[in-house]
Structure formats: structure tokens, C-alpha cells
Specification:
Helix 1 crosses helix 3 and helix 2 packs across helix 3. The strands form two sheets. Strands 3-4-5-8-7-6 form a six-stranded antiparallel beta sheet. The protein has seven helices and eight strands. It has two domains: 63 residues, Winged helix-like DNA-binding domain superfamily/Winged helix DNA-binding domain (Arc Repressor Mutant, subunit A); 139 residues, Chorismate lyase. By secondary structure, it is of the alpha+beta class. 27% of the residues lie in helices and 31% in strands. The two termini are 43 Å apart.
Length: 232
């Protein structure tokens, strides 16, 4: 019987050591998961978890039927820590303000369904809210939430706490997409951000998933002077 004392972290450390010592050089095909499980005396799932984590980190190239190889050009993958907008504003020494503009369950538009992988007529929770810093508009949040993935969101008082803050504090995600673009304010965005229609805005579009299940799609519009800083 496979040992339950061998952890995936221990296997990960051993695999990384073999890569560093060039026992497994770039391009090397690793033994099948079953063979590694037999070598390490553990369950196959434990090996798979260790190799999956290394593949996510860009150190392994893991493909169905083709097997697992040491990456020929290891790439450090960026990780995104989604900020709580309230904390982000208060960290700058500004006073935070929040206003819920709209909340409804509605059919998701085509763009949202396409990004989230949803069928036609899929209905999501649609939330529109404004975040302020010292009473000046910071960003307009236009968000769609899949309640089949996050059913607890249906009972959250979004007049008291933003969807951004509640999701960051209560829901984990395993993967996502992020797009940063320059755009022009339409009439509704201009009214919320107190600018003129057609003025430049900085737009963040982000979708998050729990494995294959969609959590949320967000379009976050900031005044054109907004600056995003992150680490890589």
C-alpha cells in the first residue's frame, strides 16, 4: 500500500533537485506518474499534484499523452494578488467611499459568456458599484457573478460591503484572465466617474475561475490618470 507519509511537497523538492543537478536536463522526459509513485512509495495522485505545481510554475511541460518534460526554457509565471479596493485606497491615506448603483439577476451578455465559458441564456448576478477616494471617483465596478459557483453571494448585503471585498475575503480562485486597456468613457461611465463622454479611462477586465467553474467577470473603469503598479 502506498505510504501516506510522503507529501507532494517532498516529491516536488526531489524533482527540483534533480532538475538543478541536471539529472533531468531541459527537454528530459520524466518517468510516467505511476513509475514515480512506485519509486517514491506514494499514491499516484501525490505525484500528479507535485508535478502539476511545477508545471504551473513553468518548470515542467506537462501534456496529455505526450508526458511530462523538463521545460527547455523555464518561464517564471506571474501571479496576481487581487487587491481589496477599500484597502488599496486607505493605504494611500485617502478616505474610502462606496455606493451600490445596481444589483440584479440578468442574462449575461455575449462577451461575458464567451470569457466565462457559459451557455446562451445563462443568468448571473450583475452588480454595478462605484468606489471613491476622498469623495472623488476611484473606479466604476461592473461585475457578473456565477451564483452556481458562489451561491453564498446571493445573500450578501452589497449595499454594505462591495462584491470585490467579499469575494477576495471569502472565495479562492485557481486561475484567471486579465486584460488592461485604454478606453473611452461612454455616457454611463462618464456620469459615474464625473468626466466627459469620450474622455480616456483605464480599464481592467478580469475573470476568475475555481478550476473549470467560473466565478466572476469584472470590468473596472478608472479615470485616465490612474496608475497601476505591480511586481513581477
Amino acid at each position: 500500500m502506498p505510504s501516506e507519509t510522503v507529501t507532494w511537497q517532498a516529491i516536488q523538492a526531489e524533482v527540483m533537485d534533480r532538475i538543478r543537478r541536471r539529472i533531468w536536463a531541459p527537454g528530459h522526459l520524466l518517468p510516467h506518474d505511476d513509475k514515480l509513485a512506485l519509486e517514491f512509495g506514494c499514491a499516484r495522485a501525490t505525484v500528479s499534484r507535485a508535478l502539476r505545481e511545477l508545471a504551473d510554475a513553468g518548470l515542467l511541460d506537462r501534456r496529455r499523452k505526450a508526458g511530462t518534460r523538463v521545460a527547455t526554457s523555464p518561464v517564471r509565471k506571474a501571479t496576481l494578488e487581487i487587491p481589496v479596493i477599500r484597502s488599496e485606497i486607505e493605504a494611500r491615506g485617502a478616505r474610502y467611499g462606496y455606493a451600490l448603483i445596481a444589483r440584479e439577476t440578468a442574462p449575461a451578455p455575449l462577451q461575458v459568456r464567451s470569457v466565462m465559458g457559459l451557455p446562451e441564456r445563462a443568468e448571473l448576478l450583475h452588480v454595478v458599484a462605484l468606489h471613491l477616494a476622498d469623495d472623488a471617483p476611484w473606479c466604476l465596478e461592473d461585475r457578473w457573478i456565477d451564483l452556481t459557483t458562489v451561491p453564498a453571494m446571493a445573500d450578501v448585503d452589497l449595499g454594505r460591503i462591495s462584491a470585490n471585498q467579499w469575494l477576495v475575503e471569502n472565495v479562492s480562485y485557481t486561475r484567471g484572465t486579465l486584460a488592461l486597456t485604454a478606453g473611452l468613457a461612454d455616457a454611463a461611465t462618464a456620469e459615474a466617474l464625473r468626466c466627459a463622454p469620450g474622455d480616456a479611462v483605464f480599464v481592467i477586465e478580469r475573470a476568475t475561475f475555481l478550476h473549470d467553474r467560473p466565478i466572476t467577470f469584472l470590468r473596472q473603469s478608472h479615470p485616465g490618470s490612474f496608475r497601476l503598479t505591480t511586481s513581477i
